[in-house]
Protein 1
Amino acid sequence: MSRSASARANRRGDPPPAPEALPAPALDSHTHLDIVLGERPAGDEHGEWSADDDVDAEIAAAAAVNVTRLVQVGVDVPSSRWSAQLAARHGSVLAAVALHPNEAGAGKATDDALAEIDRLAALPRVRAVGETGLDRYRTGPEGWEAQEASFRAHIRIAKQHGVALVIHDRDAHDEILAVLDDEGAPEHTVFHCFSGDAAFAKACVERGFVLSFAGTLTFGNAGYLREAAAMTPVDQLLVETDAPFLTPMPHRGRPNASRLVPLTVRALSEVTGVELEELCVGLTATAERVFGKWEAES
Ligand SMILES: [Zn+2]
């Protein structure tokens, strides 16, 4: 067992077995493979890309159930560099780069850090700036000003490079819309792990935003999310894991992985009434409009 695989097994146990394959290729629009594999670089060290066997195994396990494209998301400078390096080496992976809102709230969105995100956002395989946004749950009021300043800086970086914006919204629906309306949202703006109700979904859909649903859609107490998904047009709909977090039912509480996307896609098909294969095709089309074309893992 490699170092990272043993770290993973020690910390959380292995992800559950893969469900039945999807009938057509779909994707995971938001994953943290570095965290899944326990490869997240410590502190401010550079995350040199490593553990290729483990990464390959994760990508192959997802492709085996027709989850053939991934977006790997950074949350700080080291993981953003790692994400960009991974995407440069894997045709089926694109990268998103950013300083997470809770990092920003802790004062880590320095000029130097933002300059590095700006540099990474220019790379050809980096197709989004995110996850950025506002988190009013984990960051207390003392960090809100820094968090909003960082969010505004990330919006500008995304627009300057003509890439998508991937938003983290925790207990901050109205505040995020206000900032987006004020700055002017990028052409492609994605609400990662959409967490609002139907009314908020409507406000986002009307603005042309894309709503990405995670395993939370399958939770028993998430009727409001299913209502939100039901009123979202397929061309504004994405699916994701946010792995290793937010594992869909019936595996809630265990580590998540891209291979579990079919559980959430099936739930989306039920909720939206869009036939499963047609939905897979639609999700892929939405992803390629938002992030640009990229290779499917075969
Ligand atoms: Zn995330």
Protein 2
Amino acid sequence: MQPSLVAGRECPRTYREFVEMFPDDEACATYLEQLRWPEGFVCPACQMTTIPWRQTRGRLVCPICRHQSSVSAGTIMDKTRTPLTTWFEAGWHVTTAKNGLSAKTLERTLGTSYRVAWTMLQRYRVAMVRAERERLSGDVEIDETLVGGVEKGGKRGRGTSKCIVVIAVEVRQPKGFGRVRMRHVPDASGVNLLPFVCDVVVPGAVVLTDGWGGYNDLPDHGYTRKKTVLSSSGDPAHVSMPGVHRVSSLLKRWILGTHQGSILPAHLQSYLEEFTFRFNRRTSRSRGLLFRRLLEQAVVTGPITEADVTHGYNWSRHQQVGIRRS
Ligand SMILES: [Zn+2]
């Protein structure tokens, strides 16, 4: 067993260890190689597992078909001029800071331009969504919440111009919450709500909703719907949906705190993905593990260009549209 392979399974526990492990681009590339090809280099062109020839600037050449690649080619780091050490530094900060950090803070921390910091964060967020493939199960609360404004007049906000986010939360017995999933939807009609549920909740699960008609067709898709109808006296929603209420207030606090509330609707889903990645690993004691997980996802997520993220990433390519599939 080569010691370097063992090293690839390691993750730094402190910033000091991080700095020691990744002093230069070469160390970063070696680490990424182990994450990307744990069984050894696989040529992206001919798909053969071989030992590549190594050239300068981290170029890997397949000895069979002579295809030239690099560890970052075909990943979210593809064709960026940002050094790997900067990517790593950003990944470290975004996973170890308790509440993550804004592009503005990252810009200051790394000494890069705002643009570089911002696009790195956006690319990492796309990588984060890959980590959330397993659908929620058991009892799942689902409800919509409004992001970016204060609700007025006791209305639920359905059909308003503010950003509507559907939230699904696993409810544990006797108490506590499991994982979450979220989606920014254009409106709260069944056309948007049903595909979301089908994408993120396993059929057979018990789905807890309020009396909203948008959820009426859930039983047709294999779910048991439990309706909690709010009394006409106007009980606050959180009485019946404690999980969604809790997650939604954490989300809003995170957006206001870490990101100063300045999120454009076109980018909202990216932030929801980061929040989800973070929330679903909230009990993880090792932040370094989160860092490694993020990089693992980064090397298996396809290239993302700057144009892909500039006006809001097209998230539908990650959404499975479960209704049509079934
Ligand atoms: Zn090859």
Protein 3
Amino acid sequence: MATTPVAHKILTDRIGRIEVSATMAVTAEAAKLRAQGAKLVDFGAGEPHFATPRHIKDAAIAAIDANFTRYTIVSGIPEVRKAIVERHACDFGTDYAPDEAVFTTGGKLALFNALQVLVEHGDEVILPIPYWVSYKDIIQYGGGVPVYLETDESANFRITAEAIERAITPRTKAIILNSPSNPAGSVVAPADLERIVRLAHERGIYIILDECYVYLQFNGALVSGASFTEAKEHIIVAGSLSKTYAMTGWRAGFALGPKPIIAAMSKLQSQSTSSTAHFVQKAAVAALSGPQDSVAEMRADYLKLRDQVLARLAEIPGLTCTVPEGAFYVYPNVSAYLGKPGAKTSLELAGRLLHEAHVVTVPGEAFGTHQHIRLSYAVTHEDVDEGAARMKEFFAKLG
Ligand SMILES: Cc1ncc(COP(=O)(O)O)c(C=O)c1O
């Protein structure tokens, strides 16, 4: 007797829980226009306009010439893990051992793997708004539930221990902190940071510190929440070389954390990417242990660019903007222009900015707010002027 075939659905539930990264979607849309010959000013992708410093490139070239082109152990060669923990110890007073570090294919994989090994179905992860695009999808992919924490724009989106405490439930597994932040460039004040880290530790909740922009803080001493070493058992640092050393395309990041968590992340990595490219690890050693002058030079230019972009945006009536204290993004509030036909949402507004003014921005919806657009000012000073002029004209027409 013939049996009726069972109808199989093609895609898993878990892939249905996530969306394509909004910034990548914007990049793709911009690429289409560019291919048609449009001269865009690109404030979209968050990537340094600087070239990777010479000594890092040279280290990679020398590594390839010396045939460092094979598989390595999954968590990274001992040399790169030593360089990671020494850099962090030197800059933030932490005391990680090399086996508390894993080298990953970008900081994004460090975050992805950390959340996959920590978050069980139904576990809650506290996520302050505005948040970097990928956190919510990575949490949801693992079956977790993002718990969004409202912050106050008039207080520069400040995150306080009190607000975090109110969001904690018996299901809270982790808190994500990103300081300086993408998209608003806000910095968690050192006193708040200490209180949040201690609170998480006392409650047995993991604190995931996304330190992608930790070296791009404009005022005061650089701080890492991991420097509160008595809470080490509950801290996971996700680090990235992408922005610090202008190495986005190299895919170089790392995680620091308790040995069992790092071992679990390495196990997961062993079944997906394995190690990163051997010569990239060699280049990372040069980046982390070599001269750090280029980091300070780039930071100084980002600060000038920040002031320039804020000054130019201030010339556009109705736009307001918090002052970023780090990273390389501004997050202007465009609510004065929303609600009009063809610009009901910031998504629509960003679409029109792209198609009509040829200025690439990312709508706030991607970061959990509805009244903003994000501009990356990791571009040339000429592009800031040109892009702002086009925006001024566009908004004037929009009225
Ligand atoms: C806040 C934040 N975290 C992590 C990353 C991941 O960076 P990467 O994977 O290039 O190291 C980014 C990249 O834009 C980011 O903005």
